[in-house]
Amino acid sequence: MNSPSRLKLTLVIASVILCWAYSPIGVHMGLRSYSPGQLALLRFLIASVFMGGVALVLDIGRPRLRDVPWLLVLGFFGVFLHHTCLNYGQQWVTAAASSVLAQSAPLFSVLIAFFCLRERVSVWRWSCVLLGLLGVLVVIWGEQGVGGIDPRGLVILLAAVSWSVYFAIQKHYAHRYSPLTLACYMVWSGTLMLCVNLPGLPAAVAQAPWPENLAVLVLGIFPSALAYLAWAYVLKHVEVSRASVAMYLIPPVAMAMAAILLGEHVAGQVMLGAMIVLASVAAISLEGRWRRGSVAHAERAQPMTVEVLGDKGVAKVQDGR
Description:
- By secondary structure, this protein is mainly alpha-helical.
- It has one domain.
- Helix content is 71%, strand content 4%.
- The chain contains 13 helices and two strands.
- It has a two-stranded antiparallel ribbon.
- Helix 2 runs antiparallel to helix 8.
- The chain is globular.
- The C terminus is likely disordered.
């Protein structure tokens, strides 16, 4: 299969950034007419139908029976808990601040790796986590002041934790299924759980003004479905570590969209906090690249000599000095 051109990949990545940057704006608009749970369910009902059509066309693989419980767990953390908390918390913070707080998920991934998975965490990563949490505090300060912000808005941080748990589990199944297949089953299982919010939803849809319903329709098709499909396409052709760098552009783009579409004024402290959070997240990912680069360099630099001994051709490998 021929690799796509650099221009095509750039356009696809840009579309993903725009879709996911729109997400907090669409949520903000949808919350005017729906409860947090109803908004999450309606959004992913639309996404599930759309991805169901895609799955029929592309004929995705069926899950192994033993993997079904874990796919349900992925749906719980990646859709049900994440988006319920995100919608609930965004009732008390701006769309711009929400995009920054939600992007702090890699910081919590480090904490999960240390406390739950018993992985060794370097001093560098601990420093990045502390720097990132400082950035979160600056965002909170920029919103309404540390004493003025509603604590319920901090539920968005629980959404970030939930996303971190999702990625920690997803890594163990990424080699068994394609990104598209995992995305489909995550969305469908999460939507099934969100059906607890079904009572009252039809009446809410009938009563909501068309701009809010249009915003939710866009939210369901683009950030919740098309963006996952486009991201799966990107991951087929680009390394995860390289592609993920583009995700750091989501908060700045979301801030610009919030200012244009919602008329939000983005405080300077929020922008400063966003820069701190994104710098800490970027530094965490860069550490992995530095390690891989140093290991590869060490392997290339290691001199070796091979000496053939005896009539049987026994090979003896010695360090070259």
